[in-house]
Amino acid sequence: MKKLIGVLFIFCWSSTVVWAQRKSAPKETIIQAPSSTNRSKVISKNNDGSIKNVNPTGTIALGISTSTSSGIFGGLTARKVWINNPKSQSLFGLDLSIIKDYREFDSPYSYNGRGYTEGKLNQLVVIRPEYGRQWTLFKKPSEGGAALKGLIATGPNIGMQMPYHVDISYVNPGTGKSSILSIPMSQTYDNTYQRTTILGESSFFKGASESIYVPGWHLKTAFNVELDSFKQNYLALEVGFIVDYFSKPIEMLNQTPQRSVYTTGYLTFFFGKSK
Q1: Which end of the chain, N or C, is less surrounded by CB atoms within 10 Å?
Q2: What is the pLDDT of residues 38-84, one digit of tens each?
Q3: What is the 3-state secondary structure (H, E, C) of 110-169?
Q4: Is the alpha carbon torsion for 115, 116, 117, 123 positive or negative?
Q5: How far is Cα 78 from Cα 81, in angstroms, rounded to an integer?
C-alpha cells in the first residue's frame, strides 16, 4: 500500500513539474511573410504619393512683357494652367498691354530734357481676357532641363483709347501771367490755348477718366519654354504673336489714317508657382 502511494506521489509531482515548465516557457513568435497582395498595395501607395509630388496639377504665373508695339515695358500677364493631361492643357489668362502706332516718333524739341511724341492724340491700352490650349512639344528630361510648349488662345479685348496729355506753359492774355497746365494734345492744334509752349508729356494715365472704350477680339499664338526650376517654382519664357481687332478704328496720331487691326510680336517672362 505504501509503495502504491509512493508511486502515485512521484507521478503527480513529475506531472506538475512538466506542466509548470511548459507554462513558463516563452511563446513562439510566428513571422508571416507579407502576401503579394499587401506588398503590391504598399508599393502602389508609395508610387502614387511620389507621382503626386513630382507631377503638379496646375500653375499660377505672372508675366512681364515687352513687345514690338511698345517700349521696353509692354504690359503684364496673369495666367492659370490646368495640367490635367501631360500632352495638352487648358489655360486662362488676362493681359494688360500697351500698343503704340509704328509711325510714332519723339519730337526733336524738348524743355529741360522732357520729351513728348509729336502729333500723338491718344494712347491705347488693351485688356485681353482669353482662353486657350497648350501642347507639350518636348517634355523635360528626367535629369532636369527645359520643356517646349506651343499654345493658341483667343478671346474678347477692350481697347482703352485715352487722350494723350502734355504739360504746357500757358500765358493768360488778360493778366499776362504764365502757368503750367496739363491738357490733351488735341487742344494744342485747335488754338484752345494760344501762346503756349509744350514742356513735355504728362503722366501716362492722366487722361484715363476721359477714355473711350472700344470692344474687339484677339488671337494669340506662341511658343513657351518652361525653364528648369527648384521646388515648386515656375519659370518660363514665351515668345509669340498677337492680332487685335477693334470694332471701330482707333485714332492714334494727328492727320494719320486710323486702323482697326494691330499686330504685335511679344516676349514675356513668367514666374509663379506649381501646385
Answers
A1: N
A2: 544 444 444 444 444 456 788 999 999 999 999 899 999 999 999 88
A3: CECCECCECCECEEEEEEEEEEEEEEEEECCCCCCCCEEEEEEEEEEEEEEEEECEEEEE
A4: positive
A5: 10
33 DSSP assignment: P
Question: How confident is the model over 75-94, as pLDDT tens digits?
Answer: 999 999 998 888 899 999 99
Alpha-carbon distance of 113 to 110, in angstroms, equals: 6
Cβ burial of 36 (10 Å; 0-12, 13-18, 19+) is exposed
Q: Given the C-alpha cell 478671346, which residue does it identify? A: 155
For residue 211, what is its C-alpha cell?
Answer: 477714355
Query: For residue range 215-235, what is the model confidence (pLDDT) as tens digits?
Result: 999 999 999 999 987 778 899
